[in-house]
Amino acid sequence: MASLTESGRRPIRLADIAKAAGVSHGTASNVFSRPEIVREEVRERVKAAADALGYAGPDPKGRLLRAGKVNAIGVATTEPLSYFFDDPFARVMMAGISEACDATGAGIALVSAGNEEKLAWNIQSALVDGFILFCIEGGPRLVELTRERKLPFVALELGSQDDTVSAISIDNVAGGRLAARHLAELGHRRFAVLSLAFADDSTGLVSPEQVRTASYTGTRDRLLGYFEELSRFGVDTAKVPVYETENDKASTRAGLETIFASAEPPTAILAMSDRIAMVALEWLNARGIAVPRDVSVVGFDGVPEAATSEPPLTTIAQPIAEIGRRAARRILDFDGTVRRETLDVELVVRESSGPPPSTG
Amino acid sequence: MASLTESGRRPIRLADIAKAAGVSHGTASNVFSRPEIVREEVRERVKAAADALGYAGPDPKGRLLRAGKVNAIGVATTEPLSYFFDDPFARVMMAGISEACDATGAGIALVSAGNEEKLAWNIQSALVDGFILFCIEGGPRLVELTRERKLPFVALELGSQDDTVSAISIDNVAGGRLAARHLAELGHRRFAVLSLAFADDSTGLVSPEQVRTASYTGTRDRLLGYFEELSRFGVDTAKVPVYETENDKASTRAGLETIFASAEPPTAILAMSDRIAMVALEWLNARGIAVPRDVSVVGFDGVPEAATSEPPLTTIAQPIAEIGRRAARRILDFDGTVRRETLDVELVVRESSGPPPSTG
DNA sequence: CATCTTCCTTGGATCGATTCAAATTTTTGC
DNA sequence: GCAAAAATTTGAATCGATCCAAGGAAGATG
Known about the structure:
2 copies of one chain form a homodimer. Chain A has about 350 residues and is an alpha/beta fold. The first copy, chain A, folds into 3 domains: about 10-50, 434 Repressor (Amino-terminal Domain) (Orthogonal Bundle); about 65-170, Rossmann fold; about 170-320 and about 345-350, Response regulator (Rossmann fold). In chain A, the strands form 2 sheets. Chain A has a 7-stranded mixed β-sheet with strand order 7-8-6-9-10-11-13, with helices on both faces. In chain A, about 40% of the residues lie in helices and about 15% in strands. Chain A has helices at about 15-20, 25-35, 40-55, 60-65, 85, 90-105, 115-125, 140-150, 170-185, 210, 215-230, 250-260, 275-285, 320-330, and strands at about 70-75, 105-110, 130-135, 155, 165-170, 190-195, 205, 240-245, 270, 295-300, 315, 340-345, 345-350. Strand 2 of chain A pairs antiparallel with strand 2 of chain B. Chain A binds a DNA duplex (30 and 30 nucleotides) through helix 2 and helix 4.
């Protein structure tokens, strides 16, 4: 017999326990996975051996290979990992995913990477049963990479119309309509749109041509919704400035400067995200333009922060958590089908919208 | 539908490719892991076979067993998964962990579970190289469960003094002192403490006996810090009411009711968390008690929300993100040692603290 | 032409478990 | 006391890859 306290390099394996206890590995395995079918005396002997050797329990790495199922779902994005904890939209979405995972006891693996190459590797080697893809940026690439794995996956916020991928999205056209109708019904006739990107790497005022060839269909659809409804109210949409932002402070402010430099500044702003809308609120406030007295602002998304902005933001609320929940369930009870699902959005009226100032 | 080679149920294995391409599995493996050592002609042949059969690439499950390293760190808690995305403190911490993981390309696996049994199973079967433990609640149990895995782990917010576990914590005594000194130097002499739990399942006014036998040493240390410093300023700490809350609205409000029912209500409140402090702010405001004119409030933690509360909260800021970063690095470059590390906290003076009302 | 390199390729061993049909032991029934 | 039934245990097969020592072929050298 060699020394027991040989906490040497190699970790203890199930086979070591079996040998020490004088049973086969089959029995040793049963002691841990189905203890009830092992005779008590043997069971105790094996457990004692495990204790004596300092066995850490069946290694999941080994079990995994046999079992096949990881019992975890991967959530991937091209953004850095901290995106999941910083971004309000992502957080609500993750809360929804968490809920569905908690219900079935599944775990969540966060997958991301700084550079393209590492991302590919991380997706290839992620130990998960399926993926939820946050396609805020680089969606097509992310989808392509994930497809290779031949695991179930669902794309969220997918900006394109690929029918070969499962996706959950919202009715962007309806959302746009809702926002526009709300403002038009309040009496507004002079609008400006602060939009999300229509294509990669572009900002500034947008031409109809750019809208037609938009690669981000979500952006395009929101605009389509705005314009459809505005037209119904007799607004000449050709004259509505559409300024493409990068969904950040700097470009949104630039957009506001541009829009308000006009001879006939808008009385209503249609913002394609709450983030943009909240930057607008701040900018207008700093300029002494009162919201909603002078200008109304309607956002899009319905992040929690929108409820506590100054003033609270009227917005088109996505069922963000519900999207997350459904996405997780699609992976958890995967049925082999490829489906696109479109959820409804809702107008949430708060205090950033009101009738336009009476023109004198 | 397109060419989704439906060759039976079983997924394609590396061995299938090897056979199809007429090479050994060793060579087939090399094509994917070290393509440069395989002759081009062979490489192409194998790749072609892989394409033809619809091979998903080397299965990480198989690789893992050989390689040993998962390249992911597990973050575990007894709270539900959504805690990671809801709680401000957790979010900042996770952002720090994310940063360290991003830097090395490691992934993050979130581990949690509704009930005790599932939690045990999830910890046992988590595919990770190590754990970071959020011990906000049920810390000792979590540590015990994790220890079984014999993987490196670091405990955060560990409320006990166990020297056999690696942990990163803050200097709670110093934090308490800082808070108390700040208020005492402003001239306050009448204090009340809204504390975190000293032991499981207790709330209400706390006796010295309870403090002495506290099982949560973090809570005890903060109080110790408060009292040490108050004594230096001649305050009779025996007369300072200490109300134990559950770090939530209801119990905090109950504490405030109790404290302000006194004949000599405090002019300064020492809150052991920003959450408690912010509930206090709200309650005081609702009662028409002005902060800081009538009552000063100092929090603890330094969550982002504290900077935007009404009024902005003076607090003891923990280096939350840094704790996360260090914890992750401790796992990522594990050196086999068990270490407790204590980081410094910092007084952040904002607008919730000022001189006491002049007694007249 | 024989020998030595170099460069690829091969196939067995291994990672750490689970599973299951067959073998063995224990119980039960009479 | 013995056969059949029930309860346990065994050991080989399997999961899907990677690693590596050894073998073989093509090319270089004397």
